[in-house]
Amino acid sequence: SYGKSVSAIGMAAVALFSCTAKEQQDRRPNIVFIMSDDHAYQAISAYSNRLIETPNIDRLAKEGMLFTNACVTNSICAPSRATILTGKHTHIHGKIDNNFPFDTTNVTFPQLLHRAGYQTAMFGKLHFGNNPKGFDEFMILPDQGDYYNPDFITNRGDTAITGYVTDIITDLTLDWMKNRRKKEQPFLLMYLQKAPHREWIPAERHYREFTKKTFPEPETLFDNYEGRGTAAKTAEMNLLHHMTISADNKIYPEVAEELGIREASNWGKNVFLQKYKRLNEAQKEQYDEVYGPINEAFKKAYPALNDEDLMRWKYQRYMQDYLACIAAVDENVGRVLDYLDENGLRENTIVVYTSDQGFYLGEHGWFDKRFIYDESFKTPLLVRWPEKIEAGSTSDEMVQNLDFAQTFLEAAGLPQPADMQGESLVPLLEGKSEQWTRDAVYYHYYEYPGFHMVKRHYGIVTTEYKLAHFYYDVDEWELYDRKNDPFELNNVYSDPAYAAVVDKLKDQLAELRVKYKDSEELDQRFIQKYKERGLIK
Ligand code: SGN
Ligand code: CA
Fold first, then answer.
1. What is the DSSP string of 36-64?
2. Which listed ligand is nearest to 145 at the C-alpha?
3. Given a cut of 90, is residue 61 above it in pLDDT?
């Protein structure tokens, strides 16, 4: 209407005249990088509503772009985070596993944004073993952090906060946006949830609802790993055999003992006791009110359970807690999006939602991650940027966590250092997918021997195939036909029908190793490091 456009012009004029040169320069977009820990794409309703509804995370897809083939370069926490910050593969930035501190002589994109005038802040889980550089303010969890009454490391000293970690990290984030954000500067905010990382302790308000639910089982829950290689058969991440009845499934150690349940070690029991001890009296009361009856019911049922029943029971317990943790993540993402929308920060802010990697929710009988197989290799990615992205759009390109650094630098109008190894996603976000050239990605996992015993492997993934080489204490190749075998159950590496495919992919893989500066020599050097550190003989 006429009235509306006049007032719009009036407002634009006011904005123009009150703009200093500095503020004009700072039309550069804000960046809100939201990352959860171990959030499987299978547990976001924008991808699939088989398990849970996540209306707030889904808003980013509705109002922005959903990436259906986003993946990581190395499916494990700290290496992924280091890749995100540096735009480099793990063999280049050196953080190949969770074991040792990040090399802070690496240049990270937050440092570059900070130097270029961005206000920067980080809240939540980093998991580097040292503090982040390039941040005006940070409050991070030590190591993995705790679900209840977590400790925080800050640049003004350490502190502990009473409450539930997912809510607290959000409170800190909102407090910064409300009270310390400088209006004249663009900002980079890294809002990094600990949830839904193992041992999956939900917020009190979600205990009741989720422990009453029953979830559909994945097709491959009872996978026997025939048709795969040694690595799948020897991995220690099976729900029946490796998920602990105490820490993971929340059976009190005295109940497990009474039932005569013996686990390979006391590790699960010790973790349970350690985490339970952190709860204050009121929190314990709430916890016991819900988990007490579950323990009672298990006590009665257990003697009659066979392995198949126990597997099913463990799967349900796992999903109840894991998904309840996600319910809190989703609510809190909603709080942050509401704040942005209600404070004029919607249009010119890039909001990313992702996870440090994917996760198994019972597929192949597994929990955890690490493998090049889809559930751990792929990761959720949703991006909202109203000024550039058409609402409700999708991209099926194989983008990687390697690409974030260059994406944010381009969005901020900054040069992309030549030694960064990703590709800016800005053309994809703007709908110019014809400018995207990558058709194969490179993957390399190292943390072995270690937690969950997934063997070292590297590989190439195209839309059609996945070729991986498992090495160190085996020398095995696996090839999966992604179109004809979506569950990745049949290694067709030795099938003569695929001989030509193998040849071609091996050449391509060798080219990628050269392109990304990875090599046999580096593989050996990293094994040597494990020897020097006493992790292997
Ligand atoms: C902990 C977990 C493992 C998990 C690693 C790495 N055990 O050790 O199950 O694989 O972290 O996770 S826990 O019960 O003590 O949590 S990562 O996300 O940090 O890479
Ligand atoms: Ca993780």
1. ESS--GGGSTTT--SS---HHHHHHHHSS
2. 1
3. yes
Q: Are 188 and 164 in contact (CB under 8 A)?
A: no
Residue from 480, 491, 488 nearest 220 by CA: 488
Q: How far apart are CA 363 and CA 161, in angstroms?
A: 36
pLDDT, tens digit, 9 for 90 and up, residues 424-446: 999 999 999 999 999 999 999 99
120: Cα separation from own chain's centroid: 21
Q: What is the pLDDT of residues 324-361, one digit of tens each?
A: 999 999 999 999 999 999 999 999 999 999 999 999 99
Ligand 2 centre and the CA of 359: distance in Å?
Answer: 8
25 lines ligand 1 (CB under 6 A): no
Rounded Cα distance between 174 and 532, Å, is 44
Burial 15-46 (b: 16+ CB within 10 A, else e): eeeeeeeeeeebebbbbbbbbbbbbbbbbbbb
Find out whether the beta carbon of 453 lies less than 6 Å from any atom of ligand 1. no
Task: Give, using CA atoms, the residue closest to atom 2 of ligand 1.
Answer: 198
Q: What is the pLDDT of residue 25?
A: 53
The verdict on the CB of residue 317 being under 6 Å from ligand 1 is: no
Q: CB count, 10 Å around CB of 130?
A: 11
The response to whether residue 198 sits with its C-beta less than 6 Å from ligand 1 reads yes
Residue with tokens 């820990």: 37
Calpha distance 201→197 (Å, rounded): 9
What's the pLDDT at 100? Answer: 86
Token representation of residue 259: 């039932």
The count of other CB atoms within 10 Å of the CB of residue 234 is: 13
Give ∠ CA 33-370-278 in degrees, rounded to 5. 70
Q: At which residue do the structure tokens 């991808």 appear?
A: 47
Is residue 454 lining ligand 1, measured as CB closer than 6 Å? Answer: no
Please check whether residue 357 is in contact with residue 40, taking contact to mean a CB–CB distance below 8 angstroms: no
- Which residue's CA is the closest to the ligand 1 atom numbered 19? 77
* Residue owning the nearest CA to atom 18 of ligand 1: 77
Ligand nearest to the CA of 275: 1
Q: With a 6 A CB cut-off, is 199 part of the ligand 1 pocket?
A: yes
The C-alpha atoms of residue 78 and residue 127 are separated, in whole angstroms, by 6
Q: Is residue 297 over pLDDT 50?
A: yes
Q: What is the ipTM of this complex?
A: 0.94
Structural Rg of the chain based on CA atoms:
24
> What residues have a C-beta under 5 A from ligand 2, the ion?
37-38, 77, 356
State if residue 452 touches ligand 1 by the CB under 6 angstroms criterion: yes
Among candidates 435, 234, 169, 200, which has minimal Cα distance to 320?
200
Burial of 516 from C-beta contacts in 10 A (0-12 / 13-18 / 19+): middle
pLDDT of residue 537: 85
Residues contacting 430, CB < 8 A, separation 6+: 388, 389
Calculate mean pLDDT across residues 63-67.
98
Question: Phi and psi (nearest 5°) for 71?
Answer: -145, 170
- Give the Å distance between the CA of 453 and the centre of ligand 1: 12
